[in-house]
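Long-time lurker, first post. I've been practising inverse folding by hand and with some scripts of my own, and I keep getting stuck on stretches where the structure tokens seem ambiguous. Below is the full token string for one chain I'm working on. Before anyone asks, I'm not after the true native sequence, just a reasonable design that respects the backbone. If someone could post their per-position residues I'd love to compare against what I wrote down in my notebook.
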């Protein structure tokens, strides 16, 4: 699923340059549940951004689903992100003026899916995450946990090959965090590949493999 070889990423130039990643190589198979851990500045978010095709490495190579990312132009890269990758963010990134169903259906606007079919798909996924009764509510009318469930449904709407979750419980209380992680575990059990960034050991414990980073390098790579 994911093959990254000798990835390096440098921000800035000259004396002010910061090397966020240093010769990182990692392989993630289909249907793995991987947590990437590390303190602030360890490089974990930079690695996720590259794996999620939101950023490009300064050097090294990256293949996602047997496609060499460096060979894709902007149009093909956008299509790959939309069709094969689902994102879950700490701050949800929901559009405030749209209902839950409209937010979930949003990625389908960039496909050939008819609007009615897109909303039907969104409603099905909201039922899956336990929010069928909130489909007409807007983000400000929902709790943080409910908004994150909407974000998870949106991440699933295009049946992605891999889901990237960046601190998915960072803005949630412990009870809601447990509920969100149980939902991610259910998705993993159904075949989804999940790569999650977190700084919390109790959240990483839900994963089947934990990669620990420090100073832009992989320090440990352990399977549970």
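-- Answer (accepted) --
I ran through it position by position. Result:
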């Amino acid at each position: 699923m994911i093959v990254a070889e000798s990835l390096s990423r440098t921000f800035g130039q000259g004396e002010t340059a910061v090397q966020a990643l240093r010769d990182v190589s990692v392989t993630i198979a289909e249907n793995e549940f991987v947590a990437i851990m590390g303190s602030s500045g360890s490089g974990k978010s930079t690695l996720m951004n590259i794996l999620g095709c939101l950023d490009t490495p300064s050097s090294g190579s990256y293949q996602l689903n047997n496609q060499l990312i460096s060979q894709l132009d902007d149009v093909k890269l956008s299509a790959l992100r939309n069709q094969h990758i689902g994102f879950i963010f700490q701050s949800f990134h929901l559009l405030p003026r749209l209902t839950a169903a409209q937010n979930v259906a949003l990625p389908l606007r960039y496909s050939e899916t008819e609007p009615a079919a897109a909303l039907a798909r969104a409603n099905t996924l909201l039922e899956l995450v336990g929010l069928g009764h909130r489909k007409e509510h807007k983000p400000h009318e929902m709790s943080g946990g409910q908004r994150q469930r909407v974000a998870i449904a949106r991440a699933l709407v295009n049946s992605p090959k891999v889901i990237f979750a960046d601190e998915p419980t960072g803005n949630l209380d412990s009870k809601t965090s447990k509920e969100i992680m149980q939902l991610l575990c259910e998705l993993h059990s159904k075949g989804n590949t999940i790569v999650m960034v977190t700084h919390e050991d109790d959240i990483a414990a839900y994963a089947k493999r934990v990669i620990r980073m420090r100073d832009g390098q992989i320090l440990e790579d352990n399977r549970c």
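A couple of notes from the structure itself: The chain has a mean pLDDT of 92. The chain has one domain: 2-97+136-223. Happy to go over any region you disagree with.
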